[in-house]
Task: inverse folding
């Protein structure tokens, strides 16, 4: 079964289509992913079998690789939104789950790098939740 997912950046400049199924979905709590997202964790989909077609804005994509590491992220140069990247010499597609406009059809596989998680990232489900902005 061929699966297609669509996504893009916040400003709308970059749009893409991913063809194929994702193999895993990790919520990474490492300090690098927290810096990437400004949040408790990164939520990334992974596949060695998907392909990507850039529908618009490919010239607006920037990629940053942390020197002397395998840590890499792509983003829109205009709005800073996280975008998919092809890593490990074309062997792995990494797609930030939040960059997709299509429903994500795979449940998270696991939380990873929990030993490195932020000290405030514990039992967050115990705090009140609001359906919109605080009023």
Result:
């Amino acid at each position: 079964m061929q699966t297609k997912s669509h996504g893009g950046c916040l400003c709308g400049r970059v749009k893409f289509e991913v063809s194929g199924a994702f193999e895993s979905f990790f919520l990474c709590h490492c300090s690098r992913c927290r810096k990437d997202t400004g949040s408790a964790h990164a939520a990334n989909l992974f596949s060695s079998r998907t392909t990507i077609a850039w529908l618009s804005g490919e010239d607006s994509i920037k990629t940053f690789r942390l020197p002397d590491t395998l840590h890499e992220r792509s983003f829109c140069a205009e709005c800073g939104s996280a975008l998919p990247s092809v890593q490990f010499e074309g062997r792995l597609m990494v797609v930030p789950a939040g960059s997709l406009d299509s429903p994500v059809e795979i449940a998270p596989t696991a939380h990873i790098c929990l030993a490195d998680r932020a000290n405030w990232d514990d039992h967050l489900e115990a705090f009140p939740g609001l359906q919109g902005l605080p009023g």
User: Anything to note?
Assistant: The domain at 4-117 is CATH 2.170.150.70 (Metal Binding Protein, Guanine Nucleotide Exchange Factor; Chain A). The longest strand covers residues 42-47.
